[in-house]
Structure formats: C-alpha cells, structure tokens
Specification:
1 helix; Methylamine Dehydrogenase, Chain H; 4-stranded antiparallel sheet; single chain; 404 residues; 5-stranded antiparallel sheet; mainly beta
C-alpha cells in the first residue's frame, strides 16, 4: 500500500540543513525543552553539551507543543487555565539553495494566554490554534506578533465546551462538534460527534461530517486526518471549502480505534495508534488505505523522524524501542532502551516520552531523572543528560544551517 505514497516537499524544523555555499560556515544546534512531571518547571537544555540554558517556572503539569517554525514552544497547563510561550532562540531562514541558522538566547515571552482548560495546541504554518475545552472557544494565534511581545488573536466559537480540537485549512477552520443534546453529569464534558468547517467569520460551510468520539488529528501535505470510532476522517481543500471523506476501518481488523495521529512531512501519509498494542499506517489516496502493525506489548509513545522519512520510532512498555519502516510496514530493528514502564495506572503517570533530534531519538526517563540519547542507526545509547526531578514531556528544536 505504502508504495503509493506521494512525495511532497515540505519544510520541517528538524530536517537537516541543505549544504550552504562555500563562503558560509555550517553549524548544527539542537535544544531540548523538557517539562517536569510533578514540579511546575520547564527546562531548556543545549543538547550538544547537556548544559541547562533556561529554567522557566510555570503553574503545574505542562503539555509542550512546538510551533511549525520551531521559534516558539507552547507550555499548556490545563489544570491551571494557563499557557506560557517560550522563545527557543532557534531561527531558520530559507534562501532557496540553503538555509541560514541563527541561534540566540531562549527566554520566556511576556505574553500569556488564559482560559478554561487549554489543552490541544495545533501548529500550522505561521500560527497556532489553542483550544479551550471548558471555554467554548478556540484561538488562532499569530506567531510573529508573539515574538514581538504582542497578541494577535482570532477567536472561533466551538458551540459548547468539549474536549476538542481546531485546525486551519486555507481560509477555513475545521472544528470538532460536540453533542449538544446529550445530558452530562456536572463537571463532565459532552462527547464529540463530528467535524464542521467554518469561515474566518465563524459561519459554517457545508454539512457536519460524522466522526464519533473524535480525538486526535494530524496534517500531512494539504490534508488533515482525525481519529474516529468508525474510521479515519480525512479533510482536504475543495473548490467551495474543505471536503470530508471517511475511511472506515477494515472489517478484518480487530475491534479498536485511533485516538492519536502523526502526519508525514516528506511523504503524504499518517501513522496512528490502533488500540493500545497496534498501530496503523494510512495512505488516504490508496485503494486499500490501511496497513496494520502489531506490537509485542502496549505502546508508550511513538514519533516520526522528519529527516529520515521512512523511520517511525515506537517505545513499548517492555522498554524496547522499535524502528518501523513506514514504506514496508515492517519493524526493521529494535533494542532495549529503558526499564519496563507499565501502561497500567493513570494515563498521566510518569512514563518516557520521545523526540527526534538529528541522529538521535531523545527519550525522557523520569524514573532515573535522565534524558537518553539513542543513536537512530544502531539504537545504542550514545550518552545521557541528567535532569533534576522527573523529566516528562519533551520537544526537540534545531538542525543545521549556514552562518555568514
């Protein structure tokens, strides 16, 4: 199936820089942003030497999300109705035949966002979309203004508070739809039943697309995919606005569904969980869009390699890191990289999280207060970086570029 994948030229903050002209020097810089599981703090670490180059106080448990450019990282604290923004100090500028890299100080920006339970942050082009589960709204945030210490925000009505998501598509916004007729207990949120498109004035365009218990989204090339109970809902640009297509899970698949999706950067495809111990590869344009991959134990975390486009990395609860070839759908190698971390217990319990930084898969190991740098070719541990507390959510920003 994956042989039908369509190659697409996309820029990624993690793609290695193109060779610069001889008059310029080449430099590589990677920075890690790590939220502690228990303490209200985010660490900024220079991956080259392991130095802490920033320590930012927040309110509580933090979910980190990078912008598409890599210039900012959003630190969403849903339990405290707060979002902070960190300037990474990494800035790429494209010059056609090469990219320039500028490295400056990382810092906490003065601009903050407040609202009832901010959770999902979606990066897209030059902006980010922040969804407030209990606020009945989403906000489209201009990144350039943020870096100047200003707020440029467009608010989108989400009909009713719910645990949802919003994604931009051209001049439209795709917004999850809650069930407004069902009664829920106090403190609970209504289930999601679909997706709708609205213009920038908030007017609905076309009909609502059904998607039971919508959860998880990802963008690849020009299309966006969403996880549903009955399949994967795909949205693509159309003449009169976004167009929706449901890709039902095959009847031969075991009973499960997807709730976390990742989108390919150099190729148009998606990788999603399918229950707890399987993943699926999705080619939305193929006659048979799904390929099922079974894992030996339950998945703890997974991530795509934006530079090595065939590679996906999956950490399972036995402590093994698996390399999945997204073209063949085969696990091509694996190695033990941490102690076992059981999936039993609360979903927020401290477990490893993954990032990709050049030639390394970067893994937080909260039990041992370490960041482990695993070589993507050998799966051997090259070195570790100690981090106080319980390092949890992690984002890697960087790459290579020319300096003049």
């Amino acid at each position: 199936m994956m042989k039908h994948l369509r190659m697409v030229a996309l820029m990624s903050v993690a793609v290695a820089g193109i060779m610069a002209p001889a008059v310029a020097d080449e430099q590589t810089a990677w920075r890690l942003f790590v939220a502690d599981h228990t303490k209200p703090v985010v660490h900024a670490i220079d991956m080259n030497d392991g130095r802490e180059i920033g320590k930012f106080d927040v309110k509580g448990w933090t979910n980190l999300a990078p912008s598409a450019s890599g210039k900012t990282v959003f630190a969403a604290q849903p339990d405290f109705d707060m979002v902070n923004v960190i300037a990474t100090g990494i800035d790429f500028s494209d010059h056609g035949d090469h990219r320039d890299l500028s490295v400056s100080e990382t810092k906490l920006l003065p601009v903050t966002f407040e609202g009832p339970r901010p959770y999902h942050v979606v990066a897209h082009d030059d902006h980010l979309i922040l969804f407030y589960d209990r606020g009945g709204k989403a906000e489209i945030i201009d990144e350039a203004a943020l870096l100047e210490g200003q707020k440029e925000v467009t608010s989108i009505d989400t009909t009713k508070p719910h645990h949802g998501v919003a994604v931009t598509m051209g001049n439209h916004v795709l917004v999850s739809v809650p069930n407004t007729e069902v009664e829920v207990n106090e403190g609970e949120l209504p289930p999601r039943i679909g997706l709708r498109a609205v213009d920038r004035e908030g007017h609905q365009v076309g009909d609502i697309a059904a998607c039971t218990d919508l959860h998880g989204e990802a963008t690849s090339a020009r299309i966006v995919a969403f996880g549903c109970k009955e399949g994967i809902l795909v949205a693509s640009p159309g003449k009169d606005g976004p167009e929706f297509k449901m890709l039902p899970y095959p009847d031969a698949f075991p009973k499960a569904h997807s709730g976390t999706l990742l989108g390919g950067k150099a190729m148009q495809f998606f990788l999603a969980n399918y229950g707890e111990d399987k993943v699926i590869l999705i080619d939305a344009e193929a006659a048979q869009p799904f390929r099922l991959v079974e894992l030996p134990t339950r998945r703890v975390d997974f991530i795509l390699d934006p530079a090595k486009a065939r590679n996906a990395y999956i950490l399972t609860e036995d402590g093994d890191l698996h390399v999945l070839d997204v073209i063949t759908g085969e696990i091509v190698r694996k190695a033990r990289v941490t102690e076992p971390y059981s999936k039993d217990g609360h979903w927020r319990d401290p477990r490893p999280r993954l990032a990709v930084a050049g030639e390394h898969v970067v893994i937080t190991d909260p039990r041992h207060s370490l960041i482990r740098l695993i070589n993507v070719e050998t799966l051997a541990e090259d070195r570790t970086i100690p981090v106080e507390g319980q390092p949890f959510s992690i984002v890697a920003i960087g790459g290579s570029g020319a300096t003049h």
